[in-house]
Write a structure and sequence with these properties.
Layout (H helix, E strand, L loop, with lengths): L1 E3 L3 E3 L7 E9 L5 E9 L5 E12 L2 E8 L6
Antiparallel strand pairs: 1-2, 3-4, 4-5, 5-6
């Protein structure tokens, strides 16, 4: 994924603009996982940027965040 200042992110594969997508899913243990990624509407390439995991614990709500570094080659 490459970045242009005026157009946001563009796809490394085809050069078309990418869109930020947020996707939520409920897992079998009752927790939730929310994924943020950029998706190319032209070729379908996905670049995961961040994931949140939300679960109920014995002392309250547990939130874990994973951020993924994008490698530009």
């Amino acid at each position: 994924m490459s970045q242009e200042a005026s157009k946001g992110y563009t796809c490394k594969k085809c050069g078309k603009p990418m869109h930020l997508v947020a996707e939520s899913e409920q897992l079998s243990d009752g927790s939730r996982r929310i994924s943020y990624y950029y998706k190319c509407s032209s070729c379908g390439a996905k670049y995961l940027t961040e994931q949140l995991s939300i679960a109920l614990g014995s002392n309250g709500i547990i939130v874990e965040k994973k951020a993924f570094k994008q490698v530009n080659k």
